[in-house]
UniProtKB/TrEMBL annotation:
Coiled coil: none annotated. This is ZP domain-containing protein. Residues 37-188 form the ZP domain. It comes from the Eukaryota.
Length: 188
């Protein structure tokens, strides 16, 4: 009789809809900075946390496979680096605009409040002519790197553009620093 009751209580816990009681939503709490470097064939992402972090980082859509380079199981630390290939890890290519979403999840299995997501973009669409010799020019591409705060919950609502924290740089490197971005947004 006791065993049956325990199983029944466990089933009831998992059957309960928590969507009204637990809101995940976007957060920057606990993150000192997120850096993005757009290389020729991949995105190099560096995450620096304010406190020791254990959990998983992965690109959206890559959790179930749990394979490098798209997924990392981190045991402890405050500094992490991940290379996300343009031709793997669910990276989207929209005519030279490479996009992906990086999820930072504290629990190995569940997305919970306090987890974060960052939209990453490497934009190679803007060509420019560069003189190689006085009579020869070649076309190269300017790179624009962007990081934008997103919702770790795949079922979450999109953040309105006016409220979205973002860092954009007209070079191949950008740093998303939540404390600085929040202060700049407050001044507007």
């Amino acid at each position: 009789m006791t065993t049956l009751l325990t199983v029944r209580l466990t089933e009831e816990i998992w059957e309960k809809d928590m969507s009204e009681e637990m809101v995940i939503g976007p957060t920057t709490d606990g993150y000192q900075r997120v850096d993005l470097k757009c290389a020729a064939e991949h995105m190099e992402v560096t995450i620096v946390t304010e406190e020791d972090f254990s959990g998983v980082i992965y690109t959206r859509g890559s959790y179930s496979a749990q394979k490098l380079p798209c997924f990392r199981d981190l045991k402890s630390g405050t500094y992490f680096r991940m290379n996300i290939p343009f031709d793997d890890c669910k990276t989207k290519n929209e005519g030279g605009l490479y996009k992906n979403v990086l999820i930072v999840q504290h629990d190995d299995y569940l997305i919970m409040p306090g987890d974060a997501a960052f939209d990453l973009e490497c934009d190679f669409r803007k060509p420019k002519d560069v003189p190689v010799h006085k009579s020869v020019t070649t076309e190269v591409f300017d790179v624009i790197a962007r990081i934008m705060l997103s919702d770790a919950d795949p079922g979450g609502k999109p953040i309105p553009e006016a409220m979205r924290l973002k860092a954009i740089n007209m070079s191949n490197v950008v740093s998303f620093q939540p404390k600085i971005l929040r202060n700049q947004k407050d001044e507007l």
